[in-house]
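Lab manual, section 2.4: Encoding a predicted structure.

Procedure: take the sequence of the chain (325 residues), apply the prediction step described in section 2.3, and record the output as structure tokens. A sample record is shown.
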Amino acid sequence: MMRRLGSVQQKIPCVFLTEVREGQSAKRDRQQFQVVATERVNPVALEANIACALATEKLDGTCCYVALYKGQPYLWARLDRKPNKQAEKRFKKHQHSHRSSKGFTWNVEEDFKTVPEAWIPAHRVKHHNGRPVPDELGHIPGWVPVEGDNKQYCWHSAVVDYEVGAALVLRPNADEGDVLEIAAVPLADLVEQTLELIGTSVNGNPYGLGSKKRPVHCLVSHGSVKVTTLPPLDFQQLRSWFHESPEGRVEGIVWHCGDGTLLKVHRHHLGLRWPDGEPCFGNRSVVVRVDWTAEEYTGGKDLFASLSALNGHRFSRLQDIQFDP
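Recorded output:
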């Protein structure tokens, strides 16, 4: 049986040591510096024996978590607790003059925006005097349960059915590893896992799923999409792989080490654009395995019902999934 992969609860360190350089960040608006990889491998990676780690594709969506809420398995959306305007100004000023967030002092009670009552901090967030401590970005990573009446999380809601206790999961097919499948998976089987929500209305939809008229969203368990063509851990070889290999058209790589350590590299770390051409994930073939009767789902436009009507159907590319008009 395969070992349980690390869940993504906080910022994952880069597999290379990084440095800060002047210039507009390609990832974050209003950030006037870039974090780029150097050619030196992060000692954390060597200590965790990264040579034996499982390399997986980093997918471009939004992070989710499955955990109990009100006594049943629920999907939780990522919600970082962020500083208010005054505190953010002080923090940015400190960052600019020190080129770092080190040495900045937060007043967690007064400096942060309020969050919903059900909000919980992510695992491994440091605490001081019983209160969660912000990370180097000035955020406190956390989660909020996805409830049906919250419009902000309507795309999260589309992939779960709490009455039936299931979620729509996109995963490699057990018999054909290069083929993906969309399946309705019991939420109870996903408890304590983190997953990526991808689809039509998430992060510009780099994988081309669905359309505005008929949106398609699904969850992908972190660590489930393996990368087998990766070169040795060398800066230049990895950069060439991302830049030139068809399999390298991915947002990044996450390594799952045997001791639970997670490490990553993002195209931005290597000075490369994302997306750049068609991502290889959107070009993988997919089979629909949502085999439930329509009566189980209320509402004809429901994504579960729509996919049930396509049960057993195979599409040559993920981006080709279409429903009859």
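Check your result against the sample. The chain has six helices and 18 strands.
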